[in-house]
Design goal:
With about 300 residues, this protein is α+β, with helices and mostly antiparallel strands. It is built from 8 helices and 14 strands. It folds into 2 domains: about 140 residues, 60s Ribosomal Protein L30, Chain: A (2-Layer Sandwich), CATH 3.30.1330; about 150 residues, Phosphoribosyl-aminoimidazole Synthetase, Chain A, domain 2, CATH 3.90.650.10. Helix content is about 30%, strand content about 30%.
Length: about 300
C-alpha cells in the first residue's frame, strides 16, 4: 500500500526539491508564487483517470506521471505561454504499491525538470477504486499576448505541428493485446509538449488562433471554428498522417497527439520547421460555419468532429 499521507507528502516534497527563487511551495496551506512583471497568469487543470486515460497493465508508472504533466503543459503551449509551477493531487487505492507511486512521481518530475518547473503543492487522498491524478499548471504570458482560440478569420491558413495518428494507433495495438515497449512508442507513452513552438508563434505574432490536439484534429479544429465564428476546409492529402489504410482516419480523429493546431493570416510567413519540429499547412478557414475535408479522390465531404468526447 502507499505510505501514510504525511510520509507520502514528505517523500514527494524531497523528490520535488526546492521551490523557485521567489515564493514558497510545499509545506503551507497555499503556495506563494510571483509572476514575471508585465505578465498575465495562465491556469489549466486536467484529470488523468485509471481506466479512462491510462491502464496500469499497459502504461508503466513513469509514463503515467509523464503523461499527466504533459496534458497540462500542452495547454500552456497552446496559449503561447511559459509554465511556471505545477500542482498535483493524487487519489490512490489502498492496494497500490509505493513502488508504483515512486515511479509515477519520477516520470512526472523528470518532465518537470526538463522545463524548470517546480512541483509546488497539491493534495493526496485514498481512492475507493483506481488511481486518480489531477494536474494544475500555472503559466504566464506577456499581458495581452495569449494566443486564443477566437482569433481566426476567414481566409486564414491552418497549420499543424509534427505528425498525426501514431498515438491512437499505439493505443489500438494495446487494445488488441499487443505487448509494446514504451521506449519504442514515445509519441503515446511519453508525448512531447510543444512549448517552444507555441512560444515562437506567439513571440513572432504568427498564430491568430491555436489549440492543442488532445481530442483529435476534427474535434479541436471545431473548437477554433466555434470560438472564431468561421468554418474550415482541410486538405486530406496535406495531412502529415502515418502510413497505412487507417492513416487518414487516425490523423483526422485520433486524439492524445499534443501537437499544436493553429491558424495564421496568409501574409505571415510560417517556417516549414520551428525548433526542429515540422510545420504543415493543411487547409484554411472559411466564411461558412461548417467544416469540410477534400478527400484524396477530389471529393469534398463534411468534416464532423469525430475525436474524443466524455459522456458521448
Amino acid at each position: 500500500m502507499p505510505l501514510q499521507e504525511k510520509l507520502l507528502i514528505q517523500r514527494i516534497r524531497r523528490a520535488a526539491g526546492a521551490v523557485a527563487k521567489r515564493g514558497k511551495g510545499i509545506g503551507d496551506d497555499c503556495a506563494v508564487l510571483e509572476l514575471p512583471r508585465g505578465h498575465e497568469a495562465l491556469i489549466t487543470t486536467d484529470f488523468s483517470l485509471e481506466g479512462v486515460h491510462f491502464r496500469r497493465e499497459w502504461h508503466p508508472a513513469d509514463s503515467v506521471g509523464h503523461r499527466c504533466l504533459a496534458r497540462g503543459l500542452s495547454d500552456i503551449a497552446a496559449m503561447g505561454g511559459v509554465p511556471q509551477a505545477a500542482f498535483l493531487s493524487l487519489a490512490l487505492p489502498l492496494e497500490l504499491g509505493q513502488r508504483w507511486v515512486d515511479g509515477f512521481v519520477a516520470g512526472f518530475l523528470k518532465l518537470a525538470n526538463r522545463f524548470s518547473i517546480k512541483l509546488t503543492g497539491g493534495d493526496s487522498a485514498q481512492s475507493p477504486d483506481g488511481v486518480l491524478a489531477d494536474i494544475v499548471v500555472l503559466g504566464s504570458v506577456p499581458a495581452g499576448q495569449a494566443v486564443l482560440r477566437s482569433g481566426a478569420r476567414p481566409g486564414h491558413l491552418v497549420y499543424v505541428t509534427g505528425t498525426l495518428g501514431s498515438s491512437v494507433d499505439t493505443l489500438n495495438q494495446l487494445r488488441d493485446g499487443r505487448k509494446l515497449s514504451p521506449k519504442a512508442y514515445p509519441k503515446h507513452f511519453y508525448p512531447e509538449p510543444r512549448l517552444a513552438v507555441g512560444q515562437y508563434l506567439r513571440e513572432k505574432k504568427l498564430a491568430s488562433a491555436m489549440i492543442d490536439i488532445s481530442d483529435g484534429l476534427s474535434t479541436d479544429l471545431g473548437h477554433i471554428c466555434e470560438e472564431s465564428h468561421t468554418g474550415a476546409v482541410v486538405e486530406a492529402d496535406a495531412l502529415p498522417a502515418i502510413a497505412g489504410k487507417e492513416g487518414l482516419k487516425l490523423a483526422l480523429h485520433g486524439g492524445e497527439e499534443y501537437e499544436l493546431l493553429f491558424t495564421a493570416p496568409p501574409n505571415r510567413r510560417v517556417p516549414k520547421k520551428i525548433v526542429g519540429i515540422p510545420i504543415t499547412r493543411i487547409g484554411e478557414t472559411t466564411r461558412g460555419r461548417t467544416m469540410k475535408v477534400v478527400l484524396p479522390n477530389g471529393k469534398t465531404e463534411a468534416l464532423k468532429p469525430g475525436g474524443w468526447q466524455h459522456f458521448d
